[in-house]
Amino acid sequence: MKRVYFIAILSMFYSLTLFSQAAWVEPNPANVNDSIMIFIDVSQPDCECPSLINLDAEGDSLFLWTWEPTENATINNGQWNSSNHLLRMTSEGNNIWSYTMLPTVFYNVDASEVYDIGLSFLIKKFDGSAIDGVEPKSTDLHVDIDPLGCANTLCSFPTVFQEDDYLTMIYNNLLETYSSLQNMTPDECYMLPVAVAGGVDYPYFNGSVSDPAIVTIPELHMQYEGDGKFYTTILSDQFFRVDSDNPVPEGVPIEKIKVRFRKTVFTGNISQYYELTFKCE
Known about the structure:
Elements: E1 23-26, E2 36-41, E3 63-68, E4 78-79, E5 82-83, E6 90-93, E7 96-101, H1 103-107, H2 111-117, E8 119-124, E9 141-143, E10 154-157, E11 166-172, E12 189-197, E13 200-203, E14 223-226, E15 229-235, H3 236-243, E16 254-263, E17 274-277
Antiparallel strand pairs: 1-2, 2-7, 3-8, 4-5, 6-7, 8-9, 10-11, 11-15, 12-13, 12-16, 14-15, 16-17
């Protein structure tokens, strides 16, 4: 089974936690392949859950109930009148409750889905059945998780990776030194990747750097995240051993990836090579 470190990371905007809100996550920005903590303050008006206030002081328990980015989480919610005990939240005191999870594992989704969709959930008593017509729960809550930033011209996530990892490569066009390659529009960034294995270069694309056929290969088109950053995610062994015009032979370890970038319409310039090195098995 392949280890999944899939992620699409690129935004440099830092989202400040607003503690006047009922729900937030820490850290944020975050690597959603690592642990995060969801916090809910049931005393905040946005929670719309007066029946849950001060239950921590009374020694009662509250539970997470979640449905996004997917309802098919590895830990199911249980029944409305009988929550899953594995979703019991931790009292942090002062009406604040927390739950720790590793989002991609908990929801069994790629990191891109977590970043694109965010987390939707509510907090409830073990039995959410109505009491005097009122269910002991919060309103529906939602938090977005911002990806970590990229401060170099080419970044990768994870930063330490092997061939059977999903690898996200991030190109920061704002740091491009060739003037003719600067200010790329969202649709005009293409990459020319080369695998280096056994000291031999294996270019993914057989064409020349100026070949217009590059625009017909969707695998080489970089997606735009915003703020001058482009990204793509590959499974390295599949990408370079199966899909490539020049497949790396089985049994020859891939040592590193070299990548250059160009615009849709060749401008006479292509970026320098940027390198990413694989971790030894």
